[in-house]
Amino acid sequence: MSPLANLPAELKLCIAESLSPIERFSLGLTCKAFWFAFSSLLAKHKELDRKYRRVSTEDDSFMAWNVLSAVLDPDNPDVAWHIEEVGLGSQRTTIYSEPYWEGAEELDASERLMEEVADKFIEAAESIEFLTVHYDSQREPAFDYHLLGEDIRMGIDAPVIVTLLFLLPRLRDLHFVDVGDFEWILNGFRQLALAYEKPNPAPNLPLQCLTNIYIGHWDTELSLDWELAYCVIRLPSLRSLVGHMIGSTDQDAPEDDIPGWEMALDGSQSSNVEEMTFLHSGLSRQAVLALASRCKNLKKFKYSNGGATVTDVVYDPRGMINALSRFCYHSLEVLCLEDDDQCNRIGEMDGEEGPPPSLHAFQELRIISCSAADIYNNSSYRTGREGPLDREDLSFNPEQKLPSSLRRLQLTFLVDALAYKAPERLINEIASAKESYFAELKQIWLCDEFGNINAKCEEKAKEMGVNCKPIPSFAADYGYDPQDW
Predict the structure, then answer these.
(1) What are the sequence ranges of the domains in the chain?
(2) β strands within 226-308, DSSP E
């Protein structure tokens, strides 16, 4: 029995109150005396865990204000410790008092954020250094942090949200949709990312447990600024990023006005993220290059092109593959590129598309799902121009273009390529090298734009002992169907 077990009950309780919840539980397991002494505290933690482990605006549209009030309650200092999941959906209340534009003095007292509550929120926000840093850029108007207190008093949710997030030491999963004022949140994550990349970052920086994040745009048009994705992947604990309707600017302009960009190409990789998924998005080659340049161990990259409804940036899958091969050749295992739009692919009107990339450089690549146009030579069937094809246009040596680690392959061929029997030629070449090079290949699907495969390809796959079935669209895993748009 622990010598501490002989202490008076009052002293045991005093010790318990100085410990974290998990430490109290662990100490309570050491002997019955501690377990009984801590029983009231453990029961309280059980109730807090039930109530606050997952908080979401689906359950409470005023969640940000209510939960921050609970976190700052001196009588319940452990509330923040119990929050592991936060959901900030598009249906949340973004203004505490909706008619705030009429002037706070015209509102009934019951409709306004109470002055003492606002004061408490402002004090908490101003204690977070990342919310009191001025940042001015050519990409956006000057960001004035002096408006922090004013915005909180006006009932704007953005400074309240970022204050809440930065006070949650065990937050693991975050779901955020950008309805409402976005700049407070972007600037907070921008400054936090820079703080983590200092030579000797402070030991008590926020969000040290954040592992998974979903960020998305609230509308069916336009997009969420890709810089938020660029910031959050630089948090050391993050492993998975899912973005919906994420967009960047003109692909010809370097994104050199984003803090930290100057470090992006010098080998200072700071991100531990292993999976990046972008649904119905519009990222330029430069943006993908910046994201990839940060990653130490990116294993999965999945991207579906959203087209002109998201951004005016053209879809450049070859540029994306080249960006990934430059920085993630040693780690990438899954590469999926889907084109929901089919109308804004880079072509002669938008600048010359680069030469077809080779996937051979990827050392660990196991799954490939993309358009054949992304890796084949020919340009005429990619852009839809009329005209005859040369046989050289469809020449494709799979041993030079594809990695030997490949296990699952899906390529979509356009009509002109099908007329020249490109899928049949490819599967025959793969079959001839099945034993010597493609020994790991287990599944193949060479189809048309509608997902159909011809009988000869299917028969050849069976001869090789390879499953002939499609790779499911990754977007469906997130409840997203391109046909809905």
Answers:
(1) 3-42, 54-201
(2) 240-244, 246-247, 275-281, 300-305
